[in-house]
């Protein structure tokens, strides 16, 4: 036994043509673990020149950078887990991912929402294999270890075969360090030292509330989760939803023609709409038109709202701005479109693949027929076969395919729209706000990505053994 840490040690003999060599193998004591030594980290700043607006496309394909993202971007960040309406009563659960770590989100008997790493502590089997449901406990289908809704290990078949020092209290589920709720959206982070969610959102919360706080009763999701896989890096989607109104008239030209009353596309004053773009130093971004016609495209939803009441509740700036046909990303990988009622997560599945999960979000007080109208409108536009969604997926997949080339990866890309244009403040909107047609929020997104990639996360700043629930 190691006298400094209590680890069990073993000696192994290695023989050959040379003299016998003794190798010492250390094991952690029961119920404890060490933080693995992280591999050498790349300087993410070498791939980005934010000040010049130039980006190296290798950030979308390099496996080493991707693994660095998992430990330095996803592990310490607040990530969207579920909507509270998916967990109305004790025992309700929903399975999702934080980066590539599977987690199960559950409402406990005390009605507290918790999240746990979705793997059994015995052999690492996925513990809960259902997408969602209701349960009294979680039992591993491999060897039968069972856990209660608070993550405690409560059942071990053949427990008498384990040594005396085996203690079930040491082998509960690994709990997500912090879970918090903003207006029905449940986020979690593995970082026990993370700032509160509202602080991590910053000014972005003001823009989000134009979508989330229209109804005094709040919001709810309807008809579950839609999921599909795209061949593209997750950042391509996240940055577009943060910053890119620029692509709309070109990439979605045919969709705009189909949806316009004349079949010829929107009028010029609407197609070239004025608008504003919000850029956060925390990596968040949002863009929105301010034309009075840029409201709800579905007539039933548009007619449902009393805009005078909304102005009293939210203020005119929000009703005329971020409540309209806008787009937004909460760094790193949660995005939404307020008019379409879509919220979504871009789950990373390697450097060249993402899994898209989307929900339809509606106001609780909407009549059922209006909720269903919003659901249908969402499916027509930004469902997996939606006329806008397919355009975006095709673009991201093509960018990823081109990024495999040798010369392609040595040809820098231009992110200079709006560079150097004064956009520090707008009296109507909080934070840094400028023109709608701009790459500012994309540059802000990548600046935050660069800073996190170049900063050791909390788990890299400790050398002492860690507890299972820290």
Description:
- With 470 residues, the chain is an alpha+beta fold.
- It folds into two domains: 79-180, Rieske [2Fe-2S] iron-sulphur domain (Rieske Iron-sulfur Protein, 3-layer Sandwich); 202-453, Naphthalene 1,2-dioxygenase Alpha Subunit, Chain A, domain 1, CATH 3.90.380.10.
- The protein is 24% helix and 24% strand.
- The chain contains 13 helices and 23 strands.
- The protein has helices at residues 63-74, 197-201, 204-212, 234-243, 248-251, 253-259, 268-271, 299-304, 307-314, 316-320, 368-382, 389-402, 440-453; strands at 8-14, 21-27, 48-49, 54-55, 79-83, 92-98, 101-107, 113-117, 132-134, 138-139, 146-147, 153-155, 178-182, 185-189, 219-230, 275-279, 285-289, 327-330, 334-337, 342-348, 354-363, 413-414, 432-435.
- An eight-stranded antiparallel β-sheet has the order 15-21-20-19-18-17-16-23, sandwiched between helices. A four-stranded antiparallel β-sheet has the order 8-7-6-9, with no helix packed on it. It has a three-stranded antiparallel β-sheet with strand order 3-4-22, with helices on one face.
- Helix 4 (234-243) crosses helix 13 (440-453).
- The protein is globular.
- The protein starts with 7 loop residues before the first strand and ends in a 17-residue tail after the last helix.
- Mean pLDDT is 87; it is low at 1-36 and 463-470.
- Residues 13-39 are annotated as: Disordered.
- Residues 79-176 form the Rieske domain.
- Keywords: 2Fe-2S, Aromatic hydrocarbons catabolism, Dioxygenase, Iron, Iron-sulfur, Metal-binding, NAD, Oxidoreductase.
- It comes from Nocardiopsis coralli.
- Residues 15-25 have a biased composition (Polar residues).
């Amino acid at each position: 036994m190691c006298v400094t840490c209590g680890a069990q040690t073993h000696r192994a003999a290695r023989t050959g043509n040379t003299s016998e060599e003794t190798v010492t193998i250390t094991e952690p004591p029961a119920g404890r673990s060490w933080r693995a030594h992280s591999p050498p980290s790349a300087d993410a700043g070498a791939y980005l020149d934010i000040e010049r607006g130039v980006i190296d496309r290798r950030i979308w394909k390099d496996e080493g950078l991707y693994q660095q993202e998992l430990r330095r971007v996803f592990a310490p960040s607040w990530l969207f887990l579920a909507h509270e309406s998916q967990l109305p009563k004790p025992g309700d659960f929903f399975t999702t991912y934080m980066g590539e770590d599977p987690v199960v989100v559950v409402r406990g008997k005390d009605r507290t929402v918790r999240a746990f790493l979705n793997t059994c502590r015995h052999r690492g089997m996925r513990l809960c294999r259902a997408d969602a449901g209701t349960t009294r406990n979680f039992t591993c289908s491999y060897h039968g270890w069972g856990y209660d809704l608070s993550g405690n290990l409560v059942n071990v078949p053949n427990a008498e075969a384990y040594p005396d020092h085996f203690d079930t209290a040491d082998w509960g589920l690994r709990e997500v360090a912090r879970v918090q709720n903003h207006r029905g959206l449940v986020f979690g982070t593995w970082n026990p030292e993370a700032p509160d969610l509202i602080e991590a959102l910053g000014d972005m919360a003001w823009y989000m509330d134009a979508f989330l706080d229209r109804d005094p009763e709040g919001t709810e999701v309807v008809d579950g989760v839609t999921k599909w896989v795209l061949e593209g890096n997750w950042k391509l989607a996240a940055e577009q939803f943060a910053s890119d109104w620029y692509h709309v008239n070109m990439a979605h030209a045919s969709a705009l023609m189909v949806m316009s009353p004349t079949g010829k596309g929107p009028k010029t004053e609407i197609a070239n709409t004025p608008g504003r773009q919000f850029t956060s130093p925390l990596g968040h971004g949002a863009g929105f038109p301010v034309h009075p016609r840029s409201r709800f495209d579905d007539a039933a939803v548009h007619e449902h709202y009393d805009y005078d009441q909304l102005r009293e509740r939210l203020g005119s700036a929000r009703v005329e701005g971020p409540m309209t046909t806008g787009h937004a990303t909460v760094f790193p990988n949660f995005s939404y479109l307020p008019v379409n009622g879509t919220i979504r997560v871009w789950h990373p599945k390697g450097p060249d693949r993402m899994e898209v999960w989307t929900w339809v979000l509606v106001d609780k007080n909407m009549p059922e027929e209006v909720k269903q109208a919003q659901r249908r409108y969402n499916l027509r536009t930004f469902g997996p076969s939606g006329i806008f969604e397919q355009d975006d997926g095709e673009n991201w997949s093509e960018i990823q395919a081109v990024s495999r080339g040798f010369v392609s990866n040595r040809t820098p890309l231009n992110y200079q729209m709006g560079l150097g244009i004064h956009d520090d403040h707008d009296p109507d909107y909080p934070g840094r706000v400028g023109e709608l047609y701009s790459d500012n929020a994309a540059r802000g997104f990548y600046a935050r990505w660069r800073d996190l990639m170049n900063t050791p996360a909390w788990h890299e700043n400790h050398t002492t053994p860690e507890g299972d629930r820290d």
